[in-house]
């Protein structure tokens, strides 16, 4: 199961969806795509300073004092993650 925690100062994602075998797991691919898009969008579309790390089964994004644009991007990420969690509740949990 993928656990997603959105907090005031960052986002933590851990685990594996185990929806399908590695390389064919659409749930994992969806979460990964949203996460990578959020990171790249915060870097390219705002002047917000973030720290991030990604590895197999883990992503950590840390931030402080997000701009309005940064908050909007995080809100958009959260909407997407919630949609995946609603569709695949056995594989994604929002904490």
Bulk shape: elongated
Count of helical regions = 2
Mean pLDDT: 96
Query: What is the C-alpha radius of gyration, as a whole number of Å?
Result: 13 Å
- Structural class based on helices, strands and sheet pairing: alpha+beta
Biggest β-sheet description: 5 strands, mixed
Q: Report strand %.
A: 25-35%
One letter per element, helices H and strands E, the order comes to EEHEEHE
Distance between the termini: 12 Å
> What is the number of strand segments?
5
Percent of residues in helices comes to 40-55%
Q: What order do the strands of the largest sheet run in, or round the barrel if closed? A: 3-4-2-1-5
- The stretches of 5 or more residues where confidence is low (pLDDT under 50) are none
In short:
With 95 residues, the protein is of the alpha+beta class.
Key words describing this protein structure:
elongated, 27% strand, 5 strands, 95 residues, five-stranded mixed sheet, alpha+beta
